[in-house]
Amino acid sequence: MEQIFTPVSTQIFATVSTKGQMVIPAQIRESLGIEPGTRVRIRQEGTRVILEPDTLAAKLRRINEMRGCTAGLPSGTDMLLEDRRLELKRELEEEGW
Prior knowledge:
Strand order of the largest sheet: 1-2
Helix content: 25-40%
Number of helices: 3
Radius of gyration: 24 Å
Structural class: alpha+beta
Number of domains: 1
Strand content: 5-15%
Number of strands: 2
């Protein structure tokens, strides 16, 4: 799959107004595809505030970042099938088969 997002380290300062508002600089808005009306997810990680645009590209980036996070772990499907086999075996034994 083609990579959609290339991490860029940009440091630009903005000032928070008395209403708690701030402007996301145009350079950052443009690079992230933030346009008027774009929903932005806001979360806190320790002392950091993280802003993420809620766009298709951002969602695909998050999915791509999760790729391989369960590598080396047992398959959920295999675990479920084994559980069902054991359950069937117990039921058959209880019925005298």
